[in-house]
Amino acid sequence: MEPHVDLEAAWLGRIAYRDAWALQKALVDQRADGTIGDRLLLLEHDAVLTLGRQATEEHVLASPRELRRRGIEVIRVERGGEVTYHGPGQLVAYPILRLADRRILVRPLVEALETAMIRTCAELGVEAIRRDGHPGCWIDGGVGRPHRKIGALGLRIERGVSYHGIALNVAPDLRDFDLIDPCGMPGLVSTSIAEELGRTAEPPSTAAVERAGSIFATAFAGAIGADLGWADAAVLTQPAETWRAAVPA
């Protein structure tokens, strides 16, 4: 007998932000209509800055000229939260879940995503924590020292279905976080698993992000009581030109 699967995960590799955004919106519609089951998209983005729906642009510290020079787009999206950086070496996970089917509310979903990030860090040798009132994943700075942020979180719920999600710093170039006030918090120190392990000399590795994605998927499925299965990325994706019709230019 085939094992029961009620959450299908897929590793999409390196994918442009707008393509992943449009894919999410297409899957949200299909999930709300009941034509597909719950999905978990795992991927890595090219360098991009995203602004949550209430975010203020003053937290983008780099000039438009500098961003153009580096080919980094700034995109406003529907999720909660402030400005966020995505780029190579960072795990991004987008849960497409019909919440009522799982009898799960938004706050427990946030906690499940935080738990999965913390367990992923632990599996890779780094102790991370949750902070009440500060969504995401953190490293305790110790007595008298500031916390460091290792994972960001921002969700959107439409038609009862979640999308957007988390970004966990596996081994990004942390200098790129100087482009912004991460999460709208001036002076916030961003860190990564590589930084905490003293492995910053190693370049960002998509293979390392994929490994972290596998750990995260298992941890997240456990946190929401789901039976996890893996799908080929080609089963879940469509040509980029059809995805783009779903998002603003």
Short account of what is shown:
This protein is an alpha/beta fold.
Detailed description of the structure:
- With 249 residues, the protein is α/β, with parallel strands linked by helices.
- The protein is built from eight helices and twelve strands.
- Strands 1, 2, 6, 7, 8, 9, 10, 11 and 12 form a nine-stranded mixed β-sheet that branches. A three-stranded mixed β-sheet has the order 4-3-5, with no helix packed on it.
- Strand 9 and strand 10 form a beta hairpin.
- The longest helix has 19 residues, at 206-224.
List keywords for this structure.
249 residues; alpha/beta; three-stranded mixed β-sheet; globular
Cα gyration radius (Å): 17 Å
Class computed from helices, strands and strand pairing = alpha/beta
- Poorly predicted runs are none
Our count of helices gives: 8
Amount of helix: 25-40%
The beta-strand count equals: 12
Question: Multimeric state of these chains?
Answer: single chain
Largest sheet: 9 strands, mixed
Report the average pLDDT across residues. Answer: 90
In what range is the share of β-strand residues?
A: 25-35%
Order of helices and strands: EHEEHEEEHHEEEEEHHEHH
Looking at the structure, what is the overall shape?
Answer: globular
Taking the alpha carbons of the first and last residues, their distance comes to 46 Å
